[in-house]
Amino acid sequence: MAATKTEELQLDDFIKDEEDLEHLLCVLAGSDPENCSYSLGYAKRQAVFACNTCTPDASQPAGVCLACANKCHDGHDLFELYTKRNFRCDCGNGKFGDFQCTLIPTKDEENTKNLYNHNFFGRYCSCDRPYPDQDDKVDDEMIQCVICEDWFHSKHLACQVADVDDMVCEDCMNKAPFLWTYAAHLSAEIKEAEDVEVEENADILESSEGPSTIPEQEGAPTGSSQLKRSHGDMTDRPGETETAACKLQYFQALNVTRPRTGAVFWLSEWRARLCTCTSCKRAYVVAQVHFLMDPSDSIQAYERRGLNEPFGKHPLMMLTGSMDRVQQLEVIYGCKELVNAIAALFHKCATDKKVVTVEAVHELFEELQAKKRRRTNMDDQ
Ligand SMILES: [Zn+2]
Ligand SMILES: [Zn+2]
Ligand SMILES: [Zn+2]
Ligand SMILES: [Zn+2]
Ligand SMILES: [Zn+2]
Ligand SMILES: [Zn+2]
Q1: CB–CB of 208/184 below 8 Å?
Q2: CB atoms within 10 A of CB 113
Q3: Helices H, strands E: what count in the chain?
Q4: Which end of the chain is less congested by CB atoms within 10 angstroms, N or C?
């Protein structure tokens, strides 16, 4: 059998980034590659890109939608911001000077409700570093906070990293301090502690039993008003029905403590278990985390939408369904061989009368990513 390009790609060295790639496919799947999303207003969630060529000035951060990244900023120095919630495409607006959007040229000067964190000028984490970081050769995993949507080095989260989807950084925990109460019951470490017993989590378990290691449960220096209120709720013993109606008060009454430091990794259904009583909902609005109540806000829901809608079911569908998908990936990967490699894979499967498997595509992407890394490393010297 003739050795095709695809076979070579698959046989070359192999890296384990399947999840990243799957996520990447899903990120793109949920956004429209053809139409600027501006007309949707502040989209619930979409893939967002920043353009270093058009808006290099950190004091004027801007983000563009997937379609604009493809069609208006082709060949520019784009970087991916993964997905952002409640964002409206800035392409060609007041921040872009003379540059015109080719899809929707007429836009408001500014999208006043867009939030721009330091990701928009290429900085990430509490350490405010670029990614990849030339000064730090240790390849650390980056994890996104579900609330502020910033990305964090796992080593800067000040907690044990769990293999779950939802993480809330320490800053956001303190901005919505009632989450600490839930964290004592719904965080991934609780599950792990139950599953594994002892081990590294022993100290966490101990701290919920023995008073010696409980740091600053009540009267902690941060968010003290919230803490005082919680304390009051607990000791004033509100009416039985009210206690039963408010899940927060229920958890508070259990009086399980947990150190109020570090990021928190959550059990998968944690958002559904947050209280929805009127007073709690008000607190979510005040803390600007009301989107936690919206099941369609989560990245997982976005990815499901992407896979079910318009391209249907499967990461593969979007590759076969439209060459624009390939071009999107090309933008992200910045590698021209992608089109050829995918075409070769499909051609090979067609001639072998074989179905293209998800595994085959993942392998292909892993290979391409590895190639890109090697190339980037070579560029660095
Ligand atoms: Zn756009
Ligand atoms: Zn641009
Ligand atoms: Zn545009
Ligand atoms: Zn960091
Ligand atoms: Zn955060
Ligand atoms: Zn409540």
Answers
A1: yes
A2: 10
A3: 16, 6
A4: C
Using a CB cutoff of 5 Å, list residues around ligand 1, an ion. 36, 65, 68, 89, 91
The rounded Å distance from CA 269 to ligand 6 centre is 17
The more confident residue out of 330 and 365 is 365
Confidence of residue 45 (pLDDT cuts 50, 70, 90): confident
> What sign results for the dihedral spanned by CA atoms 165, 168, 170, 173?
negative
Nearest-ligand number for the alpha carbon of 102: 3
Instruction: Write the pLDDT tens digit of every residue in 64-88.
Output: 998 898 889 988 888 878 889 999 9
State how far the alpha carbon of 257 is from the alpha carbons of 76, 236, 252, in Å.
Answer: 50, 19, 9
The bound ligand whose nearest atom lies closest to the alpha carbon of 156 is: 4
Strands, E, within 145-303: which ranges? 151-153, 167-168, 264-265
CA 142 to centroid of ligand 5, rounded, Å: 13
State the Cα–Cα distance between residues 139 and 135, nearest whole angstrom: 11
d(CA 340, CA 357): 18
**What is the chain's percent helix, strand, coil content, to nearest 5?**
50, 10, 40
How far is it, in rounded angstroms, from Cα 244 to Cα 239?
9
Q: Which ligand places an atom closest to the C-alpha of 136?
A: 4
Beta bridge partners of 64: 49
Distance 12 CA to ligand 3 centre (A): 38
Ligand nearest to the CA of 76: 2
Residue 308: name the closest of 296, 317, 299 by CA: 317
Report how far ligand 4's centroid is from the alpha carbon of 12 (Å). Answer: 32
The answer to whether the pTM exceeds 0.90 is no
CB 73 within 8 A of CB 56: no
* Nearest alpha carbon to residue 154 among 140, 164, 168, 144: 140
* Range from 12-21, 194-203, 257-266 carrying the lowest mean pLDDT: 12-21
CA 54 / ligand 1 centre spacing (Å): 14
Whether 1 has a pLDDT exceeding 50, the answer reads no
